[in-house]
Amino acid sequence: MSRRTVITAVAAAAGIGITGTLFVVLGPDEPERFKLTAQQTLGDLTLDPKATQDLAGEDARIFPNTPGQIRIHDHFVVAYRTPGATDASLVVVGASGSFQRPLREIDTLLGGPDPADDPVPSGEPKRVGYTVFPPGPLGGYMKCAATGKGSDLNVACAWADGSTLGSVVDIKATESTIDLPALAERARAIRAAMTTMDNS
Questions:
Q1: What is the DSSP string of 71-113?
Q2: Is residue 55 part of a domain?
Q3: Looking at the domain assignment, is residue 22 inside a domain?
Q4: What is the pLDDT of residue 17?
Q5: What is the pLDDT of residue 89?
């Protein structure tokens, strides 16, 4: 598993089969507050304990315990196996907290600023950016991207709202199997399965 792959993390698998509905009743001035919790199973995905333990250092690096990170309350980096797999197929990164700039959080999870936002010299074509997808019933924003080639290929979707952020990376993807719409659908399902109301 490459370092770059982990940085852009979160995972998905074909046929994950997760559905869910979250009903929210709030007062007139209360913002919706959610939190993410890693699960032992997600549909047909199973937590890979060894790979998750190996990712502990990456968790600390992605979410350092510094004053600049006080917006993050809880976080995790976990790996999942698909049915029949002998090693991790997917990596999931999630965090709960207070995020005032969700789009910036998404771009960070996908590897850096959206290329489409970079200034280009006059007369040159605009750079191809990340692909925007509907975030689903939980709201917020979602973008997906396939960057790099060969062993550096990263196929990922990331979401963020005011209180959660996460990304999904298919670490088994190849250039011939990239399907961003399908990955976005799986990321929405994973997000729904990990999300609960934050009543703290």
A1: TEEEEEEEEEE-TT-SS--EEEEEEEE--S-HHHHHHHHTTSS
A2: yes
A3: no
A4: 37
A5: 84
Computed over every residue of the chain, the mean pLDDT equals 78
Confidence of residue 21 (pLDDT cuts 50, 70, 90): very low
Q: Quote the Cα angle for 31-36-40, to 5°.
A: 155
What was the pLDDT predicted at 191? 94
Per-residue pLDDT at 63 exceeds 50:
yes
Contact status, residue 16 vs residue 44, Cβ threshold 8 Å: yes
- Count of other CB atoms within 10 angstroms of residue 48: 21
- Give the three-state DSSP class for 1: coil
Only one residue has tokens 């934050």, namely: 198
Rounded CA-CA distance 29/42 in Å is 34
The pLDDT > 70 percentage for the chain reads 74
Q: In the chain, how many domains are there?
A: 1
> CA dist 146 to 135, 153, 173, 189, Å?
18, 7, 10, 20
Give the CATH number, domain containing residue 133: 3.40.1000
CA distance 129 to 107: 10
pTM (2 decimals)?
0.77
Residue 111's contacts (CB-CB under 8 Å, 6 or more residues apart) are: 4, 7, 8, 145, 147, 154, 156
| Domain housing 43 | 3-13+32-63+70-117+128-197
